[in-house]
Amino acid sequence: MSETRRAPVLGSLAALVYLFLYAPILVLVAFSFNQSRLTAEWKGFTLEWYARLLSSPQIRMSLGNSLVVALVTTVVATAIGTAAALALARGRLRRPGSLMALIALPIVVPEIVLASSLLLFFAALGLRLGFLTVILAHVAFCVSYVVVVVRARLAGLDPSLEEAAADLGAGPWRTFLKVTLPGLAPGILSAALLVFALSIDDYVVTSFVAGVGSTTLPIQIYSMVRSGVTPEINAVSTLLLVATALLLLSAHQLERGARARVAAAPALLGLAVLGAPFVAGTGAAPAERVLNVYIWSNYIAPETVRKFEQRHGVRVNVDLYDTNEALLAKIQAGNAAYDVVCPSNYSIQILRAQDLLLPLDHTALPHRVNLEPALLDKPYDPGNRYSMPYFWGTCGIGYDRRRTGPVDSWDALWDKRFAGRILMLDDARETIGAALKRRGRSLNATDEGWLRDAQRQLIDQKPLVRVYDSGSFDAALLSGDVWLAQGWSGQLAKVREENPDLEYVVPKEGSSLFVDSLAIPRSAPHPELAHAFLDFVMEAEIAAEICRTMQYSTPNRAAVALLPPEITRNPAIFPPPDVLRRVELIEDIGDATVLYDRLWTEVKAER
Ligand code: SPD
Questions:
Q1: HSE-up (13 A, CA, CB side) for residue 145
Q2: 9 C-alpha to center of ligand 1: Å?
Q3: Is 514 in the pocket of ligand 1 (CB under 6 A)?
Q4: pLDDT tens digits, residue range 60-96?
Q5: Which of 31, 35, 55, 30 is nearest to 46 (CA)?
Q6: Which terminus of the chain is more exposed, N or C, with fewer CB under 10 A?
């Protein structure tokens, strides 16, 4: 092909690549200005979602945390990285090549590996997860980038200038300050901007090492996404995107040799974009006492939390999880400072056995009399010494009856007609449990042959499954991405408010029943306030409000009396006796847990 004919082809290819890279980002930015709450429908231009950011205390707080972490990380990592680059380039080191390779290794090590090793390391040191651990972790993965950038700049710096300074009588320190540092400054600044951008953006490592009160903006965005992608998320993501792009533009200009004043302009603008919501909302005085709550997503409304904050003059941090295993990992690591947690029945057994829960002071919980006696004094917590039931419910199938027709069996999730339209929970006990029930077996089975059969069923099913997800199965059903979703009752009852064609069924072969209860970890820093919170959510009006908004079944008898019939007569929320007869509580199965986890990991790894 001739030069002239090749150019338009290459140009179109390049345009396609750029479109592929930037189309999703442009859609996100566009929808951050969309009047409609539903992301898929354009209803006109608005700045409302940006205005809401300014008034959201959670976003302001997480943005403030991100800025503090990124600034401290930038200063520390840049200083350490610059020193290391100088030592590698100018020091008389043996094997500088191998040392450089070792320094660069963290850049290519998978983030998840870095994250879990840092978590283990901090636990071994007995460091409590919080700001310090987040900053240390960020410094750990950013130093390598600084070394690489500064060393590249050093390589272009003529060493004869330093030699000349020395010949003219300048000492090493003076030579460094007057010759080396000015020559390196653009490289150091560009490394600093890169570190800032990496730190403010990081999710994976931070999610492992953050503790209460150190939630950063990416973690906040992710926990908001778990309750559905809203225009506020599009708006905050757009701000983050613009700020990061501006910082990287400055870094790029510095590297290309632009004058410092010109190159700094985009970075300053980027910082202003990030700082604006933070500065705009500094009106509210920070409360002195703090309660740290770690609870399932879709389990408590911000309004309820606000009421508790107002009544007690405290601030409540709410962090969310979607599996019992995530909760167990945090509590067992021993360095997360949560005051209130919400384990399911079998997890209470596990935490109790490991002595990780605080015995409750029943005299501080007068509203416990409101609870339904049938849900108290269960084998996983005799006498409710450690926990108070908060929500209960079932696991079943949510489905779009217009697309699937009637569904009454787990077999529907193995039906080839629905290939690519099926969602399964990302939960070893529930998925293996469903496969066991499909064969008429108990979901607490420990027989290896039965468990391997369940694994085989899940592997056979895998080509039909669109996604394994325990956090947004309801949103996936509502958006039409999937037609059938294994999920928990409350969220699947709630989707009917928006689409009455979505049904919920507990399959005829049986399923799991759960009782999720509030408990206080033994390491809770504020056990008194934690008791006040437990008692607060057992008040009849509050429990009724929580049930109305979340639509999981309340164990609070007094609250039931305050609920409208649409809730109390909804069989998805309060199942009739024939459904209750076919459900079973998941129990702690001891050593067999390892086998369940291994089999489930193998299912997910299967291609
Ligand atoms: N998003 C909240 C879901 C709560 C479900 N309870 C857990 C049951 C575990 N088997």
A1: 24
A2: 53
A3: yes
A4: 788 888 989 999 999 999 999 999 998 888 777 778 7
A5: 35
A6: C
Spacing, Cα 512 to ligand 1 middle (Å): 10
Pairing mode of beta strands 465-468, 422-424: parallel
Q: What is the pLDDT of residues 579-598, one digit of tens each?
A: 999 999 999 999 999 999 99
Closest CA to 190 of 251, 269, 257: 251
N-to-C CA span, the chain: 41
Spatial separation of the C-alpha atoms in residues 170 and 112, rounded to whole Å:
47
On the 0-12 / 13-18 / 19+ scale of CB atoms within 10 A, 178 is middle
State how far the Cα of 398 lies from the Cα of 413, in Å rounded to an integer: 11
Q: Does residue 208 line the site of ligand 1, with CB under 6 A?
A: no
Q: What is the pTM (predicted TM-score) of this model?
A: 0.70
CATH-assigned architecture of domain 393-513+588-605: 3-Layer(aba) Sandwich (3.40)
Q: How far apart are CA 376 and CA 120, in angstroms?
A: 37
The answer, yes or no, to whether any atom of ligand 1 lies below 6 A from the CB of 344, is: yes
Counting from 1 in the atom list of ligand 1, the atom nearest the Cα of 346 is: 10
Question: Taking each helix axis from N to C terminus, what angle separates 302-312 and 527-537, rounded to the nearest 10 degrees?
Answer: 120
Residue whose structure tokens are 């709550």: 293
* Assigned token pair, 568: 């109390």
Backbone angles phi, psi at 91, to 5 degrees: -75, 160
